[in-house]
Design a protein that fits this description.
By secondary structure, the protein is of the alpha+beta class. The protein has helices spanning about 1-45, 55-70, 70-90, 95-115, 125-145, 150-160, 165-185, 185-210, 225-235, 265-275; strands at about 215-220, 240-245, 250-260, 280-285. It folds into 2 domains: about 25-210, no CATH class; about 215-285, Alpha-Beta Plaits. A 4-stranded antiparallel β-sheet has the order 2-3-1-4, covered by helices on one side. It is elongated and about 75 Å long. The chain is about 65% helix and about 10% strand.
Length: about 300
């Protein structure tokens, strides 16, 4: 009897765990759905009616659909299957589930939006707004761990090992695809498509990577302990303390170096101004980081230098 109760209790616990996991994943699938809606709408009511193609396997699908006719959504699903298998082996079951869900929703919505009339026949308006909408949609899906294109799966996999963002890797693939589009849509439409993707791939990076672009801050101050403690306390960032000397005054200076995100810039300004109004601060973009300095760390009682 006790053993039976234990089995029932274990089964109930597992069911509750699965339910909690599903609830936690619900917002992610909502954002994936929203991203798929945006991407499908961008293609069917802005880009495809103006003969502007997407990149990746979806772009290949559009080219094949133009040549052979038939269903665009069918081409999208069939071409992406091998890449999803590769992505599953490298990125795991959770990725596969989200990717299949995203592509199925995307494919259905392509059929739905194909019945809508184009928003504009102005090539530049279609290019800009279609590119923006497509970039946000694809970026949302990637951010939530799915993908709408098999090349994105490969790009996500490569970006984990190479010093390239997802958008940059996808863009390299697309150079070859847009080159092929010249023979189907003509050189002018291929060039318009390439220009559109300059917009799209940047938006993909902004949305999928978030607003966590790194910023390097150099602070020259006489209140190094106060400022470094506040940076650690309020931002969870470590600082490196460097000794310096003013060339003209010949006085010893303390230089603090830290890496933050763009969202933390204003907070850093407040910290410095409150501690030492005479401090000199420079903030610049960081194009590359090796290591985990941009990651927040748990705040401890004592300060640590990076």
């Amino acid at each position: 009897m006790c053993a039976l109760n234990e089995v029932k209790g274990m089964s109930l616990f597992m069911n509750n765990s699965k339910l909690l996991f599903a609830i936690k994943q619900l917002p992610s699938f909502i954002f994936i759905t929203l991203g798929a809606i945006m991407a499908a709408a961008a293609l069917e009511i802005f880009l495809i009616p103006n003969s502007i193609i997407d990149g990746g396997l979806n772009g290949v699908s559009i080219i094949l659909n133009k040549i052979f006719g038939g269903s665009l959504s069918l081409f999208v699903i069939v071409l992406n299957i091998p890449f999803l298998i590769v992505g599953w082996r490298q990125l795991g079951k959770k990725f596969l589930v989200k990717a299949i869900y995203a592509m199925l929703v995307f494919s259905v919505l392509l059929e739905v939006f194909s019945t809508f009339e184009e928003v504009t026949d102005d090539i530049l308006l279609a290019l800009v707004y279609g590119g923006l909408l497509l970039g946000v949609g694809v970026g949302l899906v990637i951010k939530e761990g799915g993908c709408l294109d098999g090349t994105e799966a490969v790009a996500i996999m490569i970006s984990k090992k190479a010093n390239l963002s997802v958008g940059q890797i996808v863009f390299i693939f697309n150079i070859f695809i847009y080159g092929s589009a010249i023979f189907v849509f003509g050189i002018d439409r291929a060039l318009y498509s390439l220009l559109m993707y300059f917009i799209t791939f940047k938006i993909i990076d902004i949305v999928s990577e978030g607003l966590d672009q790194a910023k390097a801050a150099i602070i020259i101050t006489d209140q190094e302990e106060t400022i470094s403690d506040e940076i650690f306390k309020r931002l969870g960032r470590t600082t490196t303390i460097i000794s310096g000397r003013g060339k003209e005054s010949q006085t010893q200076k303390t230089v603090l170096y830290t890496v933050i995100t763009r969202l933390e810039v204003q907070e850093l300004r407040d910290i410095v101004q409150n501690a030492d109004t005479s401090s000199f601060v420079t903030i610049s973009d960081v194009s590359d980081i090796i290591g985990n300095h941009i990651k927040k760390i748990p705040v401890k009682k004592s300060n640590e230098e990076s």
